[in-house]
Design a protein that fits this description.
It contains 2 helices and 11 strands, in the order E-E-H-H-E-E-E-E-E-E-E-E-E. The chain is mostly beta strands. The protein has a single domain, classed as Acetylcholine Binding Protein, Chain: A. Strand 3 (82-86) and strand 4 form a beta hairpin. The longest helix is centred in the middle third of the chain and has 12 residues, at 61-72. The N and C termini lie far apart (56 Å).
Length: 186
């Protein structure tokens, strides 16, 4: 029987992240998804021990730049632990912009923006966004009260929070929680 147990069954998270998603609009439609991540104190102290060089619990411009280059840029190789579906189809994440790290209390916080342009075109769109790490090294807890920002008056939108069955991991059989944004013309 032990031959049928997946190797990932013994994996467990080493990093814990609370995240929130804000869907930002412009006059053309959805502009992208702004994210805010709060790291657990253990991971935060490890990263800040390396990048808060003067240990003053603040990140200078130089320290923030070093943290970006030393810790954040590599997340591109993992799609910034973000999965986006646009009308049921995977969206290719090519970049994250506006990265601003900070320290809140003793917690490291990442703020960044993932462009995801979905033009308003007289039809209803469904956007699903989630944070997940299929290796189970990082565990994400997404705020169920995500936000919509700058919604044009010509559009209606609804934001829900639920499990994404179509993103169930074949290895772990776990389905991530996600924000579901539906928008279209009034």
């Amino acid at each position: 029987m032990t031959l049928f147990v997946p190797n990932q069954a013994i994996a467990h998270p080493h990093v814990f992240v609370d995240s929130s998603l804000t869907f930002e609009f412009d006059s053309l439609g959805l502009k992208g998804v702004r994210q805010k991540w709060w790291f657990d104190e253990m991971f935060a102290s490890m990263i800040l021990g390396e990048f808060d060089a003067d240990h003053n619990n603040k990140l200078s411009k130089e320290e923030a730049k070093a943290l970006k280059e030393g810790a954040f840029v590599n997340l591109k190789n993992f799609n910034y632990f973000t999965t986006i579906l646009v009308d049921g189809q995977p969206y290719t994440i090519t970049e994250a912009t506006e990265f601003i790290p900070s320290i809140e209390g003793h917690t490291l916080v990442y703020n960044f923006f993932i462009p995801c342009n979905v033009k308003e075109n007289d039809k209803k769109h469904t956007i699903v966004a989630t944070n997940r790490d299929e290796t189970l090294y990082t565990a994400f807890q997404i705020d169920p009260k995500n936000k919509i920002k700058n919604l044009p008056e010509t559009l209606d939108a609804q934001l829900d929070f639920d499990i994404v069955e179509e993103l169930t991991s074949p290895i772990t059989q776990m389905a991530p929680e996600a924000a579901f944004l539906t928008f279209g013309p009034k």
